[in-house]
């Protein structure tokens, strides 16, 4: 298990984005998690391509872009050009998921598939050989600061045993409601990467919180 942290900038102070990025650059954060919401797939709108592009100029770590949008296949190249390194699309948003994942790889990025809390990990069996990351939502996507859904732990355990049977490295990332009290259980269940928004950015010392989340 890798024990990586991908802080979600959705909870950052947008008026001080430059400083927030510098803080993450100097911290033990591994990736920058960027939540893209279109107001259609999820009931909220966040930020888009120009903001990702601006962040990529200053961020010294891989950009982990989580697309919560319909028709994500239409935006693969624009996000690649904006600086995305890992591009994750929702299982529930892709009619032709296999093609979409292949297009992400062909565009030179790592490909991720995201599952909502109601989507079973068993549905991923046929796409596992084509993904680098599986992102398990542990809240319903759309907002930061929500309560962790405890059933997500069982999904991580199941997914870990599925991945261990595939002859390929696939990272398990978990997103939503993660804090200092549930992080150890999630790593123990088999997660490699934890996303944390509220827990990091509402902390007195965000860099120290990132460090503690890894322990
Ligand atoms: C939710 C987003 C998450 C969110 C996590 O739709 O995908 O990445 O920002 O925020 P916290 O850690 O506050 O639940
Ligand atoms: Zn996210």
Model description:
With 215 residues, the chain is an alpha/beta fold. The protein has helices spanning 17-26, 49-58, 76-82, 97-106, 152-164, 183-189, 198-201, 206-213, and strands spanning 4-7, 32-37, 63-68, 86-90, 110-115, 133-137, 171-175, 193-196. Strands 1-8-7-6-5-4-3-2 form an eight-stranded parallel sheet. Helix 2 (49-58) packs parallel to helix 3 (76-82). It is globular. The structure holds D-xylitol-5-phosphate and zinc ion (ZN).
Short description:
This protein has 215 residues and is an alpha/beta fold. It contains eight helices and eight strands, in the order E-H-E-H-E-H-E-H-E-E-H-E-H-E-H-H.
Say how many strands there are. Answer: 8
* Approximate shape: globular
The rounded Rg comes to 16 Å
Q: State the share of residues found in helices, binned by percent.
A: 25-40%
Helix and strand content put the structural class at alpha/beta
Ranges with pLDDT <50 over ≥5 residues? Answer: none
Give the termini distance in whole angstroms: 12 Å
Bound small molecules, deduplicated: D-xylitol-5-phosphate, zinc ion
In this structure, how is the largest beta sheet organized?
Answer: 8 strands, parallel
């Amino acid at each position: 298990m890798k024990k990586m942290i991908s802080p979600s900038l959705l909870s950052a102070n947008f008026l001080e984005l430059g400083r927030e990025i510098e803080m993450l650059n100097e911290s033990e954060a591994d990736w920058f998690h960027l939540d893209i919401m279109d107001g259609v797939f999820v009931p909220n709108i966040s930020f888009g391509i120009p903001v990702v592009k601006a962040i990529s100029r200053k961020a010294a770590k891989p950009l982990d872009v989580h697309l919560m949008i319909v028709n994500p296949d239409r935006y693969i190249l624009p996000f690649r050009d904006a600086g995305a390194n890992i591009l994750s699309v929702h299982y529930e948003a892709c009619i032709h998921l296999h093609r979409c994942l292949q297009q992400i790889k062909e565009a030179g990025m790592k490909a991720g598939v995201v599952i909502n809390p109601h989507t079973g990990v068993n549905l991923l069996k046929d796409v596992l050989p084509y993904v680098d990351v599986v992102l398990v939502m542990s809240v319903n996507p759309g907002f930061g600061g929500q309560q962790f859904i405890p059933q997500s732990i069982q999904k991580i355990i199941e997914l870990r045993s599925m991945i261990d049977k595939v002859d390929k490295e696939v990272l398990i990332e978990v997103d939503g409601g993660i804090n200092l009290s549930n992080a150890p259980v999630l790593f123990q269940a088999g997660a490699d990467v934890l996303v944390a928004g509220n827990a990091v950015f509402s902390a007195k010392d965000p860099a120290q919180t990132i460090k503690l989340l890894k322990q």
